[in-house]
Input
Amino acid sequence: MPIIAINKRATYDYEILEDYEAGLMLTGPEVKSARNGHINLKGSFAAFKDNELFLLNTHISPYTFAKPDQSYDPSRSRKLLLKKKEIARLKGKLNVKGLTLLPLRVYTTKTRLKVVLGLGRGKKQFEKREIMKKRDVERQIREELKRK
Output
């Protein structure tokens, strides 16, 4: 299960409550480009359109060895593949104010590309500062214990 891309910004800006695994519907050249690591999850999110879930604002660069396609849009909407029960559950949870669905990482399983979606609630600025202070204190404690 080699990880292709990680969205570090999502875990920094959001508190992840649950995560879901979904398939990603891509074209052939997009799959090859994504496997080469030319995928960017920064600023991307998932949203519903007509009872289907789509991944928006994910940038996949054009595959360099494919025939140049003038109509290719690297940030187009890509359909996410989930079971109907999971889609219904997510739709109900996204109706709650303040929750959003973010891609956390993209990885491969055999021949398929999968994306891990996180149901997240936005963090406030003071919460981010508290987490950073807590991390620094823990690091200092570990260093002091290591010295003794």
Summary: DSSP finds four helices and nine strands in the chain.
